[in-house]
Structure formats: C-alpha cells, structure tokens
Amino acid sequence: MSKTHWNTVYETKAPDAVSWYAPHLAESLIYVERTGAGKAASIIDVGGGESTLVDDLIAAGYTQVTVLDISDKALDVCRGRLAERAAQANWLAADVLEHRFAARSIDVWHDRAVFHFLTDPVQRDAYVRQVMHALKPGGFAIVGAFGPEGPTQCSGLPVERYSPEGLHQEFGGRFRLLDHGLSMHRTPWGAAQQFVYCFCRLEQ
Length: 204
Description:
30% strand
C-alpha cells in the first residue's frame, strides 16, 4: 500500500470523480444493520477515505465510528464535508497492514474496496491477521471486493477479483459466512463494476 499513490489520487480528483464513488453505500449500511450491533458498537471503516458511510452511520446514531485510510488527504476531505459532525467520529491515517490495533476492540469491521488491492498473498495473510486480532469474538466482518467479472485494474493498480466462495476462503474457517451477494456498482461516468460482499462472523 502506497501513501504517496493514494494522496496523489485524492489530491488530483474530486470526491465524486473516482470510480468507487457512491452517494450512499446502501449495501454496506444494510449489512451493518444486520449485525444487530447496538449504537455504541465499535465500527471501523477500513479504507473509508472520502466515503459517505461515516456520514450515514453518524446520522443513524452510531457513536463509536472510526474511519481508517492510508491517505490523510482523503480523511481531510471527509472531515471537511462533515464539518462539526467530524468530532463524532475517530480518524486514523494509517496503513491497515501495519497499524497496531488494540486486541478485541472492534465489533464491526467494514471494508468496501481495500482488500482487492492486496495482490500479494503475504499482504492478504497480514490483513486477515489484523482482522482476527482486532475483532471481538463474535464480531462481524463486512468485506466488499471486485467480483469475478469486475475490473482487473483500479486507479492504475492491479486488483484481485473474487467469487463469494473465494473471498470467504481468504479469511478461513473461523469466519462463519452469514451471507454474501453480488452487485453492480455504477461509476460516476456510467461504467459497471461488479462487486462481491461477504458478511462473516468471527467464531468465539
């Protein structure tokens, strides 16, 4: 993961000019609600960047939301958009593979578009270890990545594509697959991108 690359992306493109932009992450919100986690649950949006998920979570009454992104520029944009409401969330400018998460500190781990950039199996293993370390037993992981018919590159970088079964397999047997889904995301310029979501629970 390159901080320089992603800061350049966010410095040179408007928030609604990147391929992954969506006014609202409806599927993500549905999965968060399906966890049944209370409003005081610890929720982290990994690679949240300029995403509006934090806006909608705050509006829904969640009080312990953290947005993590490798790009401090993206987080600045998000905080600026939220204005005074930004104080209602926590902000981490960090590489998800290297950040020292507190053990068993997170109830819901959400990632809509980071995991598919991890093309090296070593990176993916490190990511899964981070999730297993940070999630509370019984906590939930909501991971979205490009589906089998999704693009092979994004923002000038190669990506991995997954079937629902393949994405779940990356996380292993301790993550019980509760549900999965394939969907089509429309980029701001109208192109279709297939996404797969896996909704899992870490076994106690």
